[in-house]
UniProtKB/TrEMBL annotation:
Name of protein: Palmitoyl-protein thioesterase 1
Endpoints of the signal sequence: 1-20
Organism: Zootermopsis nevadensis (Dampwood termite)
UniProt-listed Enzyme Commission number(s): 3.1.2.22
Annotated Pfam families: Palm_thioest
Keywords: Disulfide bond, Glycoprotein, Hydrolase, Signal
């Protein structure tokens, strides 16, 4: 063979590999009242990602066998069961076998964090949560859209978030965090108190969370749906009252490093992004520049 041709082929082979290896796949988990494939929400996000990262594979999770079920499950299927179901979906998707990046929207944010903590294989590399409620909520002033269940859910949360049937059947109660009754929250919260290592310090959770390359938390500065908004950056009310909000760095969770977040912070793995706008409102330009280009390519 002509040596020049050989060199050309050789170079082509390596540059081909570099140029044509598609970016790591993306898994997305929608928020409350939404579903996998709405063309105005996650469907649109999927298209933006595909347009900006050619060849990328995006799996927008559907919990249940239909769109209607997917929406209902966001309210009424125990978060632990949802996480278990997603662990199976992720493990059974051959496209994800070498790892993936994860985007969680609203409650999908804390649920995907639970996936990272409970199901380390295949590996999640970057986790980005948009308006996630990592320390829970203590208030749900609006559902953000007209919804027949919204008022009913708000009443249940106000009066009986820790009643066992409410805990087991109402997703939003499973991340209800009453700062006036921290002990009751720790004892009874079936989901959040567990994934935040409030009851026992589960070393597996710490080890798995530390495997993330980046844990990016996006907070919406003008959020009128989530209370308190600081929960989107893992902050919350100072225990015992419900007006003063403290940051993650001032919380016991961090100081005692119960979940490995302090270690992650020291390693530069925690990213705190803020965007002006109400819950889950951001522009395409912002999303491409701050998320797609930085974490998905
Ligand atoms: C810790 O988490 C792992 C993964 O979910 C689980 O298998 C284990 O039972 C948990 N341990 C405790 C003490 O809760
Ligand atoms: C929480 O659980 C502990 C241990 O089981 C118990 O002693 C305590 O009374 C419980 N507190 C509340 C408020 O449920
Ligand atoms: C949104 O919040 C930011 C930061 O608190 C503030 O500077 C901005 O004026 C707010 N925008 C609106 C429209 O309220």
């Amino acid at each position: 063979m002509d040596v020049r041709l050989f060199v050309v082929l050789f170079l082509w082979y390596f540059s081909y590999d570099a140029l044509c290896t598609p970016p790591l796949p993306v898994v997305m988990w929608h928020g409350m009242g939404d579903c996998c494939c709405n063309p105005l929400s996650l469907g649109r996000i999927k298209t933006i990602i595909e347009n900006n990262a050619p060849g990328i594979y995006v799996n927008s999770l559907k919990i249940g066998s239909s769109i209607v079920e997917d929406i209902e499950n966001g309210f009424f299927l125990n978060a632990n069961k949802q996480v278990e179901e997603v662990c199976k979906q992720v493990a059974n998707d051959p496209e994800l076998k070498d790892g993936y990046n994860a985007l969680g929207f609203s409650q999908g944010g804390q649920f995907l964090r639970a996936v990272a903590q409970r199901c380390p294989s295949p590996p999640m590399l970057n986790l980005v949560t948009f308006g996630g409620q990592h320390q829970g909520i203590y208030g749900l002033p609006h559902c953000g859209y007209p919804n027949k269940w919204c008022n009913y859910i708000r009443e249940l949360l106000t009066y009986g978030a820790y009643w066992s049937w409410v805990q087991n059947d109402l997703v939003q109660a499973e991340y209800w965090h009453d700062p006036l009754n921290e002990e009751e929250y720790r004892n009874r919260s079936v989901f959040l108190a567990d994934v935040n290592n409030e009851r026992v310090k589960n070393k597996t959770y710490i080890k798995n969370l530390l495997k993330l390359k980046n844990f990016v938390m996006v907070k919406f500065n003008n959020d009128t749906i989530v209370e308190p908004v600081e929960t989107e950056w893992f902050g919350f009310y100072r225990p015992g009252q419900s007006t003063e909000v403290i940051t993650l760095q001032d919380s016991e969770l961090y100081v005692e490093d119960r979940l490995g977040l302090r270690q992650m912070d020291k390693l530069g793995k925690l990213r705190f992004l803020a965007v002006d706008g109400n819950h889950l409102q951001f522009s395409e330009d912002w999303f491409v520049e701050n998320i797609v280009d930085k974490y998905l390519k």
